[in-house]
Amino acid sequence: MDEIFDTSVTFADMGLHDTIVKGVASAGFEHPTDIQAQVIPAALQGRDVIGQAKTGTGKTAAFGLPILHKADKQTRMAALILVPTRELAAQVATELDNLGRFTPIRTTCIIGGESMGDQIRSVKDGGHILVGTPGRIMDLQARNQIHFRNIRFVVLDEVDRMLDIGFREDIRKILGLIKGEHQTIIVSATIDNEIERMARQFLRPDPKKIITASGALTVSLVEQKYLSVEPWDKRTLLLHLIRHEKLDTTVVFCRTKITVHRVTEYLREKGVKVREIHGDMPQKKRNAVMASMRQGELDVMIASDLAARGLDIAHISHVINYDLPDDIELYVHRIGRTARVGRQGVAWSFVTPDQGQLLTEIEKLTGVLIEQLDYPNFNPGPLPQGVREQRERDAIRRGDAPADPSQRAEPVAAQQLPKGELERMFPGGVLPKNLPARSLGSKLRSKRGRR
Questions:
Q1: What's residue 426's pLDDT?
Q2: DSSP strand pairing (371-372 vs 300-303)
Q3: Could you tell me the pTM of the whole model?
């Protein structure tokens, strides 16, 4: 943990208001992480900052605590925090409200998919800090429902991802509309030439540049294991874990929303209290699922990666990666859902035999050797007929097929044909063992053959 936290200083030593230190302490922290220990003093001095740190190192508190310290309860819309996704906006807003719970400063989350009227009322009722995605922020500004006249603080959170997903021109337009004197903080997992050019254009001269190499807080607080499993055994293994382990509240991450839906339906049929959350759901329905989980009405939530950044529920005991993510940084966001407010968590990943390299890349990112969790009391299912047949075809092509024909899988077609149907379809009832000739005897050349 000494690699994560700067134990030479406490939040109380940093000059923050007592109410803010109290909020940090109630969240379970005394010492800042490395990025926090460097960004907070610079931000309190009023300097513009470019901060680079790994995912999961506490960047939200790094820029959020100085804003809470400097914000004036009489000034609405004094801070603007731009983020790439709705879920991250909700997470940042929730975290700032938690850290500032003993202050009069309130945060408004401005995102698409939710009532614009509710967001406008929230701004009028407080709205000291605006957190949102660039699109909805521009929309409300164009409707004159928010303004930038009072902006004293601007934060671009995960700016590399915002640029990746196409918010480049929106960000430039918003920053160009902020005319008053203000302080700007850019935080990102990576800083490339484009971000440097943006900093030169919109930040004041000589910004403080901070690059940390410390490990991720969320990674250090999570016990990580992997389970080796064939793809066709994933559902039964998941059900086995749910029934035999003390999982409390569990989030299961799948790569696609189709898988999310299928796994949810499978578990529901087996009597598990489960709900799903993914990107095609209306925001109101997503919020209802989140509320059910916060109230302890669910055992399991099946989620797509869209939810990885937005789940901020303190009592999640386990995260299960049903599918490993293609983007390995998402792995950190996923497992961080079980290490909230400094608590320990558990993350298990299902790894198929062909995913060894992907697991290695995740280990490199997290700096952790992820050990295998042996589960001897789980009995894998039989090899699916289609898989057996495909493996035999591959073996024939390689020239190492079983010598004894009795050891070969009976083609699935023969098993499924009704009595008498085999004789009707094939002379003498003999099912062909090999594929027909490619050209079927035709003298005409196919387009593929002419290439």
A1: 61
A2: unpaired
A3: 0.66
